[in-house]
């Protein structure tokens, strides 16, 4: 990639990482507080409403944000039409969701979720208003704006949620907080974008953007149905109380996914779009992005897996402990999903959204019966095992088959990008598991596991991570005597003689 593009991508990735990590850590703290106030049933009702909202909002956007972010689209030409389509479709789907909320709630086995559904319909209406600024900021890799938008909404939105939860149903508190947060974030993004095209319908531009956006919207719809199919099955078969527990398990096991998905969606697709004309550049972009993602995602999943019981008991309270066995299974799924998401964005960025849609449809067709069988056979854990089996046996092989022609030596790139992080994660997770055995106090077990596992991962991982670290960090490591250790790949340290041996 050219230096200017590489610099913009790196800055965008760092800002996206800061944004998602900060929001995720803050969200964990808020969830800890909220789950000591709300009941599992109320949390389950909100999970049902959020699942419906997520599916509807994924289609209401119609892939129009991706259109604005495409390098070969002129924002001045398509902007007015994109603005018109996004506003009209958002308002229309919001009205449908508002009217059908009671019927949807009964159909999904959680009739008490109807009010939360009605409130979240307001978020659907707002999606269209902020499509253009989101697309423009993604096009310019302005992840700093995304961070400031999320940060501006965090404090007032969560204060509102806590006040409402202390004085009313928890699912209503979650829903109103989301509406307020989306409004504040959208206004901040609009201010950063400094552009808002007046809505105007142009049939020629509409055909152009819909030709590109509809396959993306369909893939997003299928993808979000995949992400929420388990919620709907668990709610229908096991009820909102078990759904609340399963939702917590999925949230905890998805820390890696939630932390990195935003970076993948906002940075990887525009990056692949710029590099798609050169297979070598595309391969380098894939290798660097996949390596960075695996180095971040795998340890999060590994530590979550071996410390699941301690995490749930310490952070959320013992009444949620049934989520721990589900987290053990879903911890594996979280990292695999992020890898599949990157390959999905590779297809879209290379101008092949229809192929991505095909994989998503195959995924959904296979997952539905697998999820039904899993829930019937083993309840919440059965749903988790269905996710793992389908992504390993069907989804990742399908993405590999479709992307191997885009990138030379794809198999080597995938192995070189994933194996170092996998090896480091296994060693550090085993260290974390061993460390927690020295005490029976839950809080100490969690603290010891995270500390020892983290030290082992960073100690052995610095030579692998060194090429991704900013210059300031490398200079800081140099001051504490770790500069050479982080500067050279691990295999160089293994085969190079030590300084003492050379002097002898």
What would the keywords be for this entry?
504 residues, 21 helices, disordered C terminus
Give the helix/strand layout.
Layout: H1 3-34, H2 40-60, H3 64-69, H4 75-107, H5 114-127, H6 131-139, H7 143-166, H8 170-193, H9 203-238, H10 240-253, H11 255-275, H12 279-306, H13 308-315, H14 324-349, H15 353-403, H16 410-436, H17 442-465, H18 471-479, H19 483-487, H20 490-495, H21 499-503
Structure overview:
The protein is mainly alpha-helical and 504 residues long. It has a domain at 35-238. Helices cover 84% and strands 0% of the residues. The protein has helices at residues 3-34, 40-60, 64-69, 75-107, 114-127, 131-139, 143-166, 170-193, 203-238, 240-253, 255-275, 279-306, 308-315, 324-349, 353-403, 410-436, 442-465, 471-479, 483-487, 490-495, 499-503. The longest helix is centred in the C-terminal third of the chain and has 51 residues, at 353-403. It starts with a helix and ends with a helix.
